[in-house]
Amino acid sequence: MSSDSSSKQSHFIAIEGPIGAGKTTLARRLAETLDYELLLEEAERNPFLKKFYNNRRQNALATQLYFLFQRSQQLEELRQRDLFSPNKVSDFLIHKDRLFAKTNLDADEMALYDKVYEQLTFDAPAPDLVVYLQAPSQVLLDRVRNRGINYEQTIDRDYLEQINQIYSEFFLYYDDAPLLIVNAEQLDFAHSDSDFEELVKRILSIKGGRHYFNPTFL
Questions:
Q1: pLDDT at position 141 over 70
Q2: Which of 89, 106, 175, 209 is deepest in the core (most CB within 10 A)?
């Protein structure tokens, strides 16, 4: 991809979607292709995550607060070095933290979480393009199983269906940035150059509004 092409693209692209949708793989390839800075959520650094998957109810609050602090710090660091690296792609949107919190926390925990969330995210930098990857829950579960991360193997289909639902509801009304909704059920960004190249073409064509990329109709 030429520098001329990348210069026409959005300066801050956020990739979102449920577990197993392909966010990180796509973000890595986009960053390499467009010569953008890569910002990853690095979930494996959360010391509470393994405990969360073993006992979600007991470890939910600590897990969510750690992610919130981690991601808000990443965005603040991004803001501080923006003059030196203006183009970036991330595999998360800060709003995702509250989506997971609503699924995993009880009412009292959510009230506490919201107080912290409001303080940490009130001026978070907004992307100028969001790419939302969708896939059926069974497809997500199969991908989670196949990638073989030990602590993820306790994830069940019911939990993935909850996550899928909250993402669908959130992006149904999302209008903070241009949005590309991608049917990722049959896409393989890791091994298929054609899948990736078709999606990049669509991304580079977006100037605003809401758009859809469904390869079954290409």
A1: yes
A2: 89
DSSP 8-state class, residue 15: E
Cα angle at 96 between 91 and 97, to 5 degrees?
Answer: 115
Q: What is the mean pLDDT of the chain?
A: 89
Distance CA 163, CA 179 (A): 19
Query: Residue type for 46, please?
Result: N
| pLDDT: which is higher, 3 or 55 | 55
Q: Which residues are catalytic?
A: 91
Q: What is the mean pLDDT of residues 134-150?
A: 93
Query: Beta strand pairing status for 179-183 and 88-90?
Result: unpaired
The predicted pLDDT at position 50 comes to 92
Q: What is the model's pTM?
A: 0.89
In angstroms, the Cα distances linking 82 to 7, 13, 41, 85, 207 are 16, 14, 18, 5, 21
Count of CB atoms situated within 10 Å of the CB of 57: 10
Q: Which of 129, 123, 120, 121 is nearest to 87 (CA)?
A: 129
Q: Cα 63 to the chain's mean position, in Å?
A: 17
Gap between the Cα atoms of 211 and 218, Å rounded:
14
Contacts of 52 (CB under 8 A, 6+ apart): 59, 60, 62, 63, 104
